[in-house]
Model the fold of this input.
Amino acid sequence: MRALLAKITLWRAISTVILAVGAYAAYLRFFEGWVVSTNLTDAQPWGLWVGFGTLCGVGLSAGGFCIAAAVYLLGMERYRPLVRPSILLSFLGYSTVCVGMLYELGLPWRIWHPMIYWNKHSVLFDVSLCVMCYTTVLALEFSPSLVEKALPWKGLRRWYLKWQHRILIGLVMAGVLLSSMHQSYLGGLFLIAKGKVHPLWYSPYLTTLFYLSAIPAGMALLVMVLYLCVRSLQAKIEYSLLQDLSRIMMILLGVYAVFRALDLVRNGAMHYAFMATKEAAYFWLEIVLFLVAPLALLSWKKVRDTPQYLYWTCAIVVMGFMANRLNVSITALDAMSGAQYVPKWPEIALTLSVLTAGVIAFRLAVLYLDIVPRYEEPKEFRWLASDGAGTVAEA
Done:
């Protein structure tokens, strides 16, 4: 009994409560109906499930195709230690999106229909098809980590790994193409709603804006995850790799900032940002979190050189990215329709439960699969220095 109680930690208790409440919310969604479980209406058909679950989930998973392309297509072998964790993070991110689509859809048992009934005139069809295909690609890219540990037959394991290696470059190329397509297509969903999206977030170049913002956000989440792997799971990771990612993020955020500013000026929407409105306040919150604060912090060498500072800076980037996606999908539509949407508690519970399940799956994969090298000795918060020696990380 004492051994069992010793395993009950605060985070495990919190996770259990979140999953239990999420299970009840799922029951309400599937058995009690749409009205009981959401506050969505015809005026605001896309709320937290789409804004956070799909738009944020897809965008924050962009690190996988970036790292895979850098290593396998551009030959940047220095970043090979980041391939498996980035692929795993993307695979779990897209898996949560696919699970989220089950309760987003009005008829979830028809989620397979896009594979059979093609509608070439629908942007949503393009998105759904790309998401399904890219999730399959990620599963194949991640499969060696699982096969190496779980497949007991040595001959079959060797054959599969050899076969997967032969098609790997093709998988990576397909992954880059598919991910780039649907990262952009998600922005295209709002192009057909001209006049229903607030001018601060509507643009004929929404596809480009979605793509440019997803890559630095995906890298920021990857940095956060790697930091937590070192801090809590005894991972061996060279800190200079994270410093490189931080420099790339700073450049990409700068490119996005310039493009965003020019787009606002071109569309004649800049003056809306200086009005005394709720939308202007949300706009500046997004800009400060996603652009101003990260660019200022990442330009400071001490922030890039200190793991804890870099972690919190990346957390700000992720929060700013989420603010952008929620502004586009909720704030911008609310402003024009007057819906005043506020998510109902089952929407929040289901979102948190799926996110928690993804975090648990990532932790178990790092512990039991060959995702990142790990220290065998007792837990220490330290990074692998460039010379291969372990160094204690200072906060």
